[in-house]
Amino acid sequence: MRLTPEEEEIRAGRRGEPARRALEMQLEVGRFFGAERMVRVASAHLTGDPDSMGEAGLAFVETLAREGARFVVPTTTNARNVDFECYRALGQPEQVAARERRLRALVVEMGAVALDTCAGYQTLTPPRFGEHLAWGDTGTVIFANAVAGARSNFEGGPASYAAALTGRVPAYGMHLDEPRWGTHRVDVLDPPRSVSDWGALGVLVGRRLTNYWLVPVFVGLPAEASADALKQLGATLASYGSLAMFHVVGVTPEARTLAEAFGGRPPRETIRVEPGDLDRVYRSFVPRRAEVDVVVFGTPHASLFEIRRVAELLRGRRVHPRTRLFVTTNAHVRGMAERLGYAATIDAAGGTILAGPCFYIMTPRILAELHGFSTLVTDSAKLANIIPASGYDPVLRPTEECVEAAVQGTLER
């Protein structure tokens, strides 16, 4: 790989030992993927929560901090394991919160801003067209690539730390033009009618295309697609298919025309989404029993508009005594929801807004053991895909049906 004089300085250790090791790791990655050079990034988004990192991961970060590591580009943090205001009431162990505080203190010491969200692109860190990023959370990456036209690969775990320390990443994958071009055409004849329908569409396509290097191009979707709709589509494609890019013709910035989306090449295959297909996606999630234990909104973190919708549907109603309702978001959105009265409405109905965690990383197995959680109803296709690994029986439904399930405490099978 060709290195600039600045990169040679880093490699020689003149920018510190942590940066030197980080660059050496990046060069190994670059050589593996055939990169010819590095590219500077505008920001980094760290991934790796304490529960998944374990003691080895925390020791890795502690070593960096002890050696004086400092992040050289704006760096933010992803969702965490606990809401520090609510974890005791939920029964989460003190040691989980202690590890979270430990990691948070370390990354802040190195220069990170503790946003603690997987949807910072909707609040404080919007990506810009054409800029190179080193973001780790898959939902943030696919949104940045597809919706904003920024450029990032999945920089998971230590890779996101390395980018924050060197301010650059190997130039391969989504940092280049050709891998961003479409590979598969998706003709949508069953247009989404709600935000959750966009997630169902992501399930349908993500189950078919399960390769990082594939890029679906959607034809026939409405031009007025909201940011929340595109967020759900992207996060679901990334979860089910490990995809990092998609195009919506006439909507996303690199797909003003069909020809532009495909880079002038013909599609490898055409997928048709027929009338009724989205409903069939929902009905493919069949609960093992009618009783609903927990209803969860906010994967990725809920926007203010999504929280307002849940509040509207809950106004004047009560969540069933045997059912819990959670909305996960970040502190900034929860603060606005409190100011505008949405949080009070959800609280009065018996629900809880959590700031910081996503449900699938907030020790879900422990919560299941403590509260008897098994059947989980959600309007998040991403959560429905991930949570079975923690022993839950997920049921994907539109937002309105999720609220009804929370109020009734049951769901039609």
Structure description:
The longest helix has 17 residues. Helix 3 packs parallel to helix 5 and helix 8 runs parallel beside helix 9. The chain has 413 residues and is α/β, with parallel strands linked by helices. The chain is built from 17 helices and 14 strands.
Structural class: alpha/beta
Question: Terminal Cα separation, in Å?
Answer: 57 Å
Top-tier CATH class of the largest domain: Alpha Beta
Number of helices: 17
Percentage of residues in DSSP E strands:
5-15%
**Total domain units:** 3
Index terms:
alpha/beta; Aconitase, domain 3; 4-stranded parallel beta sheet; 17 helices; 14 strands; 13% strand; globular
In short:
By secondary structure, the chain is an alpha/beta fold.
Task: Outline the secondary-structure elements.
Layout: H1 5-11, H2 17-32, E1 38-40, E2 44-46, H3 50-66, E3 75-77, H4 87-90, H5 94-109, E4 134-135, H6 138-148, H7 158-166, E5 168-170, E6 184-188, H8 195-206, E7 216-219, H9 227-241, E8 247-248, H10 258-261, E9 269-273, H11 277-283, E10 294-297, H12 304-314, E11 324-329, H13 331-340, H14 342-348, E12 352-355, H15 364-371, E13 375-378, H16 381-386, E14 393-396, H17 399-408
Parallel strand pairs: 2-3, 2-4, 6-7, 6-9, 7-8, 10-11, 10-13, 11-12, 13-14
Antiparallel strand pairs: 1-5
Helix pairs in contact: 2-7, 3-5, 6-9, 8-9, 8-11, 12-14
